[in-house]
Amino acid sequence: MRTALTIAGSDSSGGAGIQADIKTMISNGVYAMSAITALTAQNTTGVTGIMEATPEFLAEQLDNIFTDIYPDAVKIGMVSSSALIETIAKKLHQYDAKNIVVDPVMVATSGAKLINDEAIDALKSQLLPMATVLTPNIPEAEVLSGMKIETADDMIKAAAAIGEKYHCAVLCKGGHQLNDANDLLWRDGGYKWFQGKRINNPNTHGTGCTLSSAIASNLAKGFDLDTSVERAKKYISGALAAMLDLGKGSGPMNHGFAIQNEFTLAKEDN
Ligand SMILES: Nc1ncnc2c1ncn2[C@@H]1O[C@H](COP(=O)(O)OP(=O)(O)OP(=O)(O)O)[C@@H](O)[C@H]1O
Ligand SMILES: Cc1ncc(CO)c(N)n1
Hints:
Blueprint: E1 3-11, H1 17-27, E2 31-43, E3 46-52, H2 55-66, E4 73-76, H3 82-94, E5 100-102, H4 117-127, E6 133-134, H5 138-145, H6 152-166, E7 169-173, E8 183-187, E9 190-194, H7 207-220, H8 225-241, H9 266-269
Parallel strand pairs: 1-2, 1-4, 4-5, 5-6, 6-7
Antiparallel strand pairs: 2-3, 7-8, 8-9
Helix pairs in contact: 1-7, 2-3, 3-4, 5-6, 7-8
The chain binds adenosine-5'-triphosphate and 4-amino-5-hydroxymethyl-2-methylpyrimidine.
Residues 16, 109, 137, 173-176, 181, 183, 196, 198-199, 201, 204, 206-209, 211, 233, 236-237, 240 line the site of adenosine-5'-triphosphate.
Domain Pyridoxamine kinase/Phosphomethylpyrimidine kinase: 11-254
Catalytic activity: 4-amino-5-hydroxymethyl-2-methylpyrimidine + ATP = 4-amino-2-methyl-5-(phosphooxymethyl)pyrimidine + ADP + H(+); 4-amino-2-methyl-5-(phosphooxymethyl)pyrimidine + ATP = 4-amino-2-methyl-5-(diphosphooxymethyl)pyrimidine + ADP
EC number: 2.7.1.49, 2.7.4.7
């Protein structure tokens, strides 16, 4: 079985972060591992607290993972401080990690800030150059490119500027802001649109985490980047279309839609 690692923050409400990543990885057929950068106390209405891991303890988690079950792909999500970013960059270099998907998490769906300002420079200088693919939404692409994004053409320009600067592929997500469910992949000097059918579901907590983990899972399985993005879009569309409705805010998706079949008896039990 292929293996994938998420390096991210825990979401106590289970819809985003580490929990979304692990659910996504299982559903996409890979073995999931995690190195936790921070605990968050949050639910669908907001984040009330963040407790960071120490850089030493994050390093220890990564040492245990890489020296035993080597991950075929790595997804990086919420990393709130420059010390944690430096630790991740050092360890991924040391273990020659492959297929690195960086989701430059800055703000939660609920609006809470998940990265310190000082960490954005470290993210740019240390993590982006290691990425196989980077998955910013529009506000994140604006911060990383320094450009305002108002049109689909601006998405192409910003993705190209980021990709050329940091030598990585860039998937700029139209998401809820601009282009409905159409995402732009820039790589190797060219670009391609991935058209998604917009699903009328207000419950989008953790969509960014889920998409990046689905891409990592498919890269781990040996699919090329275009195919991995295609398959990840199909997975997230299915999870949104399952129309789970939990919580008082923007709720989580049903990550398990693809594996809730007659063998799990999940449908009969609910
Ligand atoms: N209503 C929707 N219908 C179909 N696809 C959607 C919808 N909303 C988002 N997506 C898709 O979900 C994926 C994640 O994109 P999104 O822009 O929501 O990420 P994000 O803003 O980083 O998420 P988060 O709020 O978790 O940080 C993208 O492929 C996007 O096109
Ligand atoms: C831990 C965590 N990571 C990422 C996000 C972004 O949705 C979130 N809400 N929580």
